[in-house]
Structure formats: structure tokens, C-alpha cells
Specification:
EC number: 3.2.2.4
Shape: globular
Keywords: Glycosidase, Hydrolase
CATH architecture of the largest domain: 3-Layer(aba) Sandwich
Distance between the termini: 59 Å
GO molecular function, one term: AMP nucleosidase activity
Organism: Kangiella aquimarina
Strand content: 15-25%
Catalytic activity: AMP + H2O = D-ribose 5-phosphate + adenine
Helix content: 40-55%
Strand order of the largest sheet: 10-9-8-7-11-12-13
Number of helices: 17
CATH class of the largest domain: Alpha Beta
CATH topology of the largest domain: Rossmann fold
Radius of gyration: 21 Å
Number of domains: 2
């Protein structure tokens, strides 16, 4: 057994684990460079993301829960002739069974090391890859996925991206499981944001569907980023964890890897994802590319999608509304529509000779790729007026929601709001009225945070 437990306490455990996720095949020189990178800011990021993974058995989106453990938690990269060993001190005891780290969490810990540290030095030494241009971003994302062994050439399209909120009621969670089950029965693999709620449900349902069909190598891919992993720790079903540099690269990863998209009810994070994908689909260069997009939920969630559809119609218009289909309380219909949509994608990519495993054809503007820093100045400067191309308006609305997500659950965003007060958003009166109505609906429906009783808005609309 690879885990060697050194000490067991009532609440924390010290342990040593040996490398997986491809890091066991390193030269001594590579390991030395890897160890050298685990200092300063890189080390703090490694600690934070690893601790978030080990806390995944605790359901919370309060980053203070992890911050309280941070000073006592330590991780050290140790060099072995056969690879890498991690020495971990004061790991949460919930990550262990009888003193041995749960295998799935162990794999996720080394995924953190791979993406946060090892990939960083790879990108630094590869001058052909950069995040300062549109093509550079896409190439870097491809490199990250290839390094994570997430790209599977020669496999027919079957990846379904499922988006939705982490703070959802039980009946919505059960519905996501049922949709996932129907997708799993049809052999589809699942990609989500890797957290709980509408991210965990489809994976759990698909796992049962795969088991019934005797599919033993089902893929449950969780894509996250350092700013949000502490608030949305990976759920235990994720068997491929990928950490992207920021939210924009995370979103592009979804659309490059996915073959069909299902959106469940959620909050501002889900609205951000919807506006991101609609902004891309509204670009003139993407008009003829098949892109199955379905909004779905149980009967009780019909008003939620009615409100989302109204917001899209009033801000982006009928063209944006034509890009998706709303299916209420019919998991089988959703799965069949996904199936037919994936077939359309397969035929299109075969026709244009595009890869099945990575969507190179889709055009993504720099506005959707450049990292958006939600400072008060940047939030107040957003162009929320209709006198601009629709896809750019969608990009700016996406950034507004991204900032609210940061103010709700991200460490840096929370610090900004605590220091300077709520974000100020200003724009066209009609757009601001629609935005105000949608955000108030999210608050009333308890979709902002798990701790909805104590929720204080991190934004003000003018």
C-alpha cells in the first residue's frame, strides 16, 4: 500500500503518499525543479488547493472553514529515485479510512501537484505557449489537457458538460441524478465543475447508469480553478480532476472538450456560464457550428428557467434565445436530445475534419479569454449598454456575474468587498432592471450561498 501513516490524532492525520497522475515517471532533475517551485506563492497555492481536496467530505462553501486549518497544514515534496513522495502534516481526518487516505482523494492530491506546480514549470520553459493572445490561450489549454491525459483521440464524441448550482434544494439535486442516470445508460461521460449539488448529481446518476451497462471506465471529469476550489471542493465521484489557471481558462476548457451541454438550475455562477456560452455562440463565425445546449430542471424549477429566459430575451434578444432548448421535468427527453445532438456534432466534425476530443473550430474572442480581475474599478467600468455587438454585451454581463461569484465565495473577492464595500454596477436602465430582478430572484430562491440565511449582497446596482 502506498500510503504510510505516521501519526493519527482525533481531528488531523500526518501521512506520506507516493506519486500518481503521471508524476511517478520523472527524472531526478525534474523532481528537483518540481521541489524548487514549491516555495513562496506557488507553495501557498499548492497548500490551499490540496487542503481543499482533502476537505471534500465536508459540505460547505465558506472559505473561512479551510482558512482556519491553513496555518497548521503543511505539505512537503520529497524526492525518490522512483518519483515523488508528499509528506503531509495535519490533514483533515475525514480524508482517511482507518488511517489510510481514500484512494480517490489521493489521486486528486497529485492532480493538484500536476496542474498547479509541474505544469507551471512546463509552461515557463515552453516559449511557444503563452496566455497573452487568443491562439496562445487555446494552445495552452490543449497543452494542459494533454499533460493531464484528458484528451482521448479516436474516441467517438460522448462528453456531456453539466452546469448548475452547488446551493440547490434536494428535489433539484435528485433531478440532476436522474438526468445523469439516463445519460449514463446511453454511454455518455460527464464533465462538471467538480463541486456538489448540480455538479455531483449528474456524476452520481451516470455512475449507476454506467454500472448497469457494465461500463467500467466511465469518465467523471471535474474542472476547477484555484480561486474557487476552496469553496467548491471536488466531489468524491470525480476521477479526473483538472485545475485550470483561472475562470476564463476553465470555461474555455468546458467548451473545447464538451460535445453537448446541459444546464440545471443554479445561481450567479450558472448565469455566468450561460452568458459565456451564449456570447460565443452569438459570434458570427460560430453561426453554423452545431452546439447542443439544453436548460432543464424539475417542474418546481420551471419559473427559474422562465426568469432566465426572460433575462436573456430582454438583454440579448431572440437570437440568443434560439441557441438553447428548455426541457422541463423529462430526463429521458433530455438524454435523447443529448444523444441526437452529439450525433450532429460527430457528423459535423467528421465533415470538417476537426478533432473529436478538442473543438478547434469554435471561435472564441479575446474578451472571453482574458482573465477578468473583479476589482471595484473593473466592475464599475463594465460596459452594460446595448450599443455594442451582442456577443460583447454577453461578455460584459458574464464578467458582472463573475465578479458577484468572486464576492460571494472567492477569497480575493470577499477581501475586496470587506475592504471597499459592495461592488457598484452601472448601465442601461432596462438592462439593470432585468439584472436586478434576476439577482433578487436568486436571493429569494436561496441560490446565492449554502448559508443563505446570513447572505449579504456583495453588489449594488445603479
Amino acid at each position: 500500500m502506498n500510503n504510510m501513516t505516521q501519526a493519527v490524532h482525533s481531528q488531523y492525520i500526518d501521512t506520506e503518499i507516493t506519486a500518481e497522475s503521471g508524476l511517478e515517471l520523472l527524472t531526478n532533475d525534474e523532481i528537483q525543479r518540481l521541489s524548487a517551485h514549491t516555495t513562496g506563492n506557488d507553495y501557498e497555492l499548492l497548500k490551499k488547493c490540496t487542503l481543499a481536496v482533502l476537505n471534500s467530505t465536508n459540505i460547505t462553501d465558506d472559505i473561512s472553514f479551510i482558512q482556519q486549518q491553513f496555518d497548521h497544514f503543511n505539505i512537503e515534496v520529497m524526492q525518490l529515485n522512483k518519483g515523488v513522495k508528499l509528506k503531509i502534516k495535519n490533514a483533515p481526518s475525514g480524508a482517511f479510512v482507518d488511517g489510510v487516505m481514500i484512494q480517490g482523494l489521493k489521486e486528486q492530491v497529485f492532480s493538484v501537484l500536476r496542474d498547479v506546480v509541474f505544469l507551471k514549470q512546463e509552461l515557463e520553459t515552453n516559449s511557444r505557449i503563452d496566455f497573452n493572445s487568443s491562439s496562445g490561450c487555446t494552445n495552452a489549454i490543449f497543452h494542459i489537457l494533454r499533460n493531464a491525459k484528458a484528451l482521448k483521440p479516436g474516441v467517438d464524441p460522448n462528453m456531456v458538460v453539466c452546469w448548475g448550482g452547488h446551493a440547490i434544494p434536494h428535489h433539484e439535486y435528485e433531478y440532476t441524478k436522474e438526468v445523469g442516470y439516463r445519460l449514463g445508460l446511453r454511454g455518455h461521460d460527464i464533465i462538471t465543475g467538480c463541486g456538489i449539488g448540480a455538479m455531483k448529481g449528474p456524476m452520481k446518476g451516470a455512475l449507476v447508469g454506467h454500472s448497469k451497462q457494465r461500463i467500467t471506465k466511465g469518465r467523471y471529469i471535474g474542472i476547477t480553478e484555484p480561486g474557487i476550489i476552496a469553496a467548491e471542493s471536488p466531489n468524491p465521484i470525480v476521477n479526473e480532476l483538472i485545475i485550470m489557471p483561472d475562470i476564463e481558462k476553465r470555461l474555455e476548457t468546458f467548451v473545447r472538450m464538451g460535445h453537448s451541454f446541459v444546464v440545471f438550475p443554479g445561481g450567479v455562477g450558472t448565469a455566468e456560464e450561460i452568458l459565456y456560452i451564449l456570447g460565443i455562440l452569438l459570434h458570427p463565425q460560430n453561426q453554423n457550428i452545431p452546439f447542443p445546449l439544453i436548460f432543464t430542471g424539475p417542474t418546481e424549477s420551471a419559473d427559474y428557467f422562465k426568469r432566465i429566459d426572460q433575462f436573456i430575451g430582454k438583454t440579448l434578444g431572440p437570437e440568443a434565445q434560439s441557441k438553447y432548448q428548455i426541457i422541463i421535468d423529462d430526463p429521458v427527453k433530455v438524454a435523447k436530445r443529448v444523444q441526437s445532438g452529439v450525433t450532429e456534432v460527430r457528423e459535423y466534425r467528421k465533415k470538417v475534419q476537426d478533432a473529436y476530443h478538442f473543438n478547434w473550430q469554435l471561435h472564441i474572442d479575446w474578451d472571453f479569454q482574458e482573465s477578468f480581475d473583479p476589482t471595484h474599478q473593473n466592475m464599475a467600468s463594465l460596459n452594460l449598454h446595448p450599443e455594442q455587438p451582442l456577443h460583447l454585451l454577453a461578455a460584459n454581463l458574464r464578467k458582472a456575474f463573475s465578479g458577484i461569484v468572486a464576492g460571494n465565495v472567492k477569497e480575493k473577492g470577499i477581501a475586496e468587498v470587506n475592504k471597499h464595500g459592495p461592488y457598484q454596477l452601472d448601465g442601461n436602465p432596462d438592462i439593470m432592471d432585468e439584472l436586478d430582478g434576476l439577482l433578487k430572484a436568486f436571493v429569494e430562491q436561496k441560490r446565492m450561498k449554502l448559508d443563505y440565511k446570513g447572505y449579504v449582497p456583495c453588489y449594488q446596482l445603479r
